[in-house]
Design goal:
six-stranded antiparallel β-sheet, 25% helix, globular
């Protein structure tokens, strides 16, 4: 999966979270995710189950992490909290429990939609979109318990998603991945380079965002090499309110290409949480980077951008994920998101990526998400 931000550190394809594809109209393609295999991003048919009245035990905190607090209450004295209690503290109705045949799924109605959590699975859903959790939810005495960091960093930001705003003057830096000697991924269809497709995507995004009132700056406007840190410094000099890096994905192994397709969206892993994607980067949960100051906004922008791309393109939803090895994200002093809008190693998606019409849809999706 060659990439400028990927080339900043040596890596191997050690993917912790590999995606949850939507089956095409013909034979469905199935991809493992976490410790189970799911077909499609649509949630399975569920059967209601009565939840026992007795709530499971709560596990005391085993870490001195700071900022482990919910939007509605301080939970720094707990490492795990039941979804029932989180709902109550957040002013929500109790979650409904369902049986999906292999686990217990709990659905909660929140101001921005419907949230689904399944015990034993790192795959959560918000309005049908895949949200990768940092920790596997636990089922205890009929109640599902989530790690405080998942509640704080992944669920709580969804409560105020509609309140995400940027005050004028709104400055966004759009970062076309790669450039110059860094070609990025190579298409299996026509040997086209990722660097050319990301630049075209960025050039299409710019006028659309400008018409929405954004001041738009590109880290590169031609086929030139720009280092990872220079992209970060560029956003710093511009006093940008938001940084969005554009990419297309790829896998090197022909045997795994049939399992890798669809759209992924990344933001920095919060301190204390394991990443969903590590490569051979030594993923140290204790690390704190400048961009961790924007954990909530990172996730909120990632959700909006990911949702728009899935809606505009109809492509497979591989989830909103966390990673901490991406230099262009972790060193930012502003909200930052990285988009992977398809796999150039997949023949079907390589054909789409080579299409100007598809890249225009991607541009319109970004503009819609930031409108």
């Amino acid at each position: 999966m060659p990439s400028l931000w990927k080339s900043s550190v040596p890596f191997l394809a050690a993917v912790v979270l590999t995606g949850c594809p939507t089956p095409p109209k013909t034979q469905p393609r199935v991809t493992p995710l976490g410790n189970q295999v799911l077909e499609g991003h649509a949630e399975p048919v569920l059967t209601p189950v009565r939840t026992p009245d007795k709530e499971g035990p709560r596990v005391p905190v085993e870490t001195n992490l700071t900022n482990v607090s919910l939007r509605s209450t301080n939970v720094s004295d707990k490492q795990w909290l039941s979804l029932d209690e989180w709902n109550q503290l957040s002013g929500l109705e109790p979650p409904q429990r369902f049986d999906n045949g292999w686990g217990a799924t709990f659905r909660s109605r929140i101001p921005s939609g419907v949230l689904s959590i399944t015990s034993g699975s790192r795959v959560g859903y918000w309005n049908g979109l895949v949200v990768a959790l940092g920790f596997v939810p636990r089922l205890t005495n009929g109640h599902v318990f989530l790690h405080a960091l998942d509640l704080t960093k992944n669920l709580s930001p969804l409560l105020s998603l509609h309140g995400l705003t940027v005050k004028p003057p709104r400055v966004v830096v759009i970062d076309p991945g790669h450039g110059g000697k860094e070609t990025g991924s190579t298409s299996v269809l026509n040997s086209g380079f990722e660097k050319d497709y990301t630049l075209d995507w960025a050039l299409r995004v710019k006028p659309l965002l400008q018409s929405n009132g954004w001041k738009v700056l590109l880290t590169r406007a031609s086929d030139v090499h720009v280092s990872l840190l220079e992209r970060v410094h560029f956003a710093e000099r511009a006093k940008a309110d938001l940084f969005v890096s554009l990419h297309f994905n790829s896998v090197d192994s022909p045997s795994s290409r049939s399992e890798h397709f669809g759209v992924e969206t990344y933001c920095l892993t919060p301190t204390g949480m394991p990443s969903n994607l590590t490569r051979n980067y030594k993923d140290n949960p204790a690390e704190v980077f400048p961009n961790n100051a924007f954990d909530a906004q990172n996730f909120q922008f990632a959700v909006r951008l990911h949702r728009a791309i899935i809606q505009f393109t109809g492509r497979t939803d591989r989830g909103i994920r966390r990673a901490r090895f991406m230099v262009v994200l972790r060193e930012q002093n502003r909200p930052a998101v990285l988009l992977e809008a398809g796999y150039m190693s997949d023949p079907e998606e390589a054909r789409l990526i080579a299409s100007a019409g598809y890249r225009q849809k991607l541009a319109e999706a970004v503009a819609m998400a930031l409108e």
